[in-house]
Specification:
The chain is α/β, with parallel strands linked by helices. Helix content is 34%, strand content 13%. It contains twelve helices and twelve strands. Helix 3 links the parallel strand 3 and strand 4. Helix 5 packs across helix 8 and helix 6 runs antiparallel to helix 7. The longest helix is centred in the last third of the chain and has 19 residues. The termini are far apart.
Amino acid sequence: MEMGWKVLLPQELKPDARKLLEDHGLTLIDGRGFETEDVIADMKEHQPDAIIVRITKMTRAVFEAAAPNLKCLVRHGAGYDAVDLEAAKEFGVKCLYAPVANSTSVCETAILHMLFASFNVKRLQKMLMVDFYDAKLKTEMHTLSGKTLGIIGCGNIGSRVAKRMLAFEMNVMCYDPYKPAKDFPDGVEVVRDLDRIFKESDFVSLHAPNTVVTRNMVNKETLAMMKPTAFLINTARGALVNEQDLYEALTTGVIRGAGLDAIAHEPILPDMPLVDLPNCLITPHVGGNSQEAALRASYHAALGVLEMYEGKEPTWPIPYIDYATAQTYDDVKIPDRKPAGIYDY
């Protein structure tokens, strides 16, 4: 076991996670900032053995600056599209992540957006002090019970959303071609035709990674398939949605509304047209930022560094998947339950 590993932290690590690493003899370096240029400067100055990153774009230039010392990179969360995995592999850097640390928090954020949209909270807030009874009596609101939820991507987060929304008495359809039907939650309908998700759902909720297959999957054509009363929910990655096409769909009545916790450009651009729409709620990618999720992500990230330091097989290595050629499944599963209806109790 190598001694004296240095771990670069471009952003804070929670106290329990810091203590775990320091108690095992690792030296923590608090970086000068999380911008890529800051991390490159810290890499050159400190030559760390490991880095725990949140939102920093880990480009080839970072790995070049980190060579030859950097051995391990851990993503403080589930997404890893900001990491140049090919460059990491070329420079011999093992990449890990924390795929289950924030799953519940992101799941609850998706539910927040569904409830916010279905109860038209933006209008309620706007009209509350203008005309109380207009807000109370003339705001169109809907229950989630009896509606159909279409989930795209049924991994750690999508599965949690499915289970919880079944308890809301929603009819849940799931699409994930990389997962056998037996591994989907009980009570959902497993579909293999993506068009059905867009055509039949009252809510389409995105829980897929940003890949060559999913990028811009929500666009003019797929939005046109949706019901005019439907909502789009995106708590995954902004790149999955063509935002100009979504803007046109929201302003012309193609769909009723949208809830976005992930947008294409972060931080948000001041002239982003979606911001001002009454039927679109945008939150600043906070799905994984609950206090509980942050604590878990910090600790899981620290565990990953410690496993590498001690020469153990890491629990959560980032998978190297070629989604264009990955194995897909075509088996289906029909739920053994009566679909919820408007008059059900």
